[in-house]
User: What shape does this take?
Amino acid sequence: MTAQKIPSLHKVYQNYFEIGAAVNAKTVETQRDLLIKHVNSLTAENEMKPENLQPEEGKFTFETADKIVRFAKENKMKMRGHTLVWHNQMPDWFFTTQSGSKVSREQLLDRMKTHIHTVVNHYKDDVYCWDVVNEAVEDKGTDLLRKSPWLEIIGKDFIEKAFEYAHEADPDALLFYNDYNESHPEKRDKIYTLVKSLIDKGVPIHGIGLQGHWNLEDPHLDDIRQAIEKYASLGLQLQLTELDISMFKWDDRRTDIKEPTEEMLEKQTDRYEKIFALLREYKDVITCVTFWGFADDYTWLDDFPVEGRKNWPFLFDENHEPKQSFWKVVRDL
Ligand code: GLA
Assistant: This one.
């Protein structure tokens, strides 16, 4: 199959939703042609996270993220912003004073505001939406919010403050709450409760990001559908922000599989076909589907949760050739 005969994924999906990929400084080079052909939206995998944009207080380092933004612009792709407030990949200084003690609520709000204002303002012309708060909801038990320095120091209004600061900095940006395990009923209901409470308070929030770190069996298709319906009932737009279909279930810690088996590939093909058919049904509420990477030569899952174990979660293989799953996803469209 020659490259010309392969349809462009984002063009095939132009009447449904945008097609995105998470990239880093390396993959914009190694996957350049593939990305240019198939995606019309980009997310920086790590480059816009606080530890990379403000490694020291007041010292903003935009260079690497700017390169990704330039690549997006040159190729007429939209740019998502990811992420402003998260419990991971925060620089250490953020939560401590110079003398090493914990910052006060006022100091932390001040730091949050400066970070959000500076970053959102810097990307005002280029980034059309932000994952403002990432993964604030607790997976298990009765607590709504996960324990984090944000919650502990500021209190639960840290979430609304983050959205307010982002809105102040760019009133035109679409602001998202983004989370994983978003289709599991227990977490889904908590995310719904959180977002509904924000809407009820008049907080500027415009979308929910369903990360979509899924595998061959989990979550069940019906649960994905119910999650989409429940979130959509809030009247916000939805995006799949970090889609990948791992070959391994979460508790499968095998290390001896060096290439995907036929069975794995078949299951993955079937899963992608069904998932995209489902997503297409909801094209009125889903505005973008972003893969967390784009081809099997690079995925964060190569190291997670089993260090050094290869994974093959995408529609394109390690040589950037379309897999069977790709053909099912574009079939009859
Ligand atoms: C989360 C984050 C992403 C990324 C992935 C794993 O889902 O939102 O930024 O770090 O984990 O790579």
Observations:
- The chain is about 35% helix and 15% strand.
- The first helix runs from residue 9 to 12.
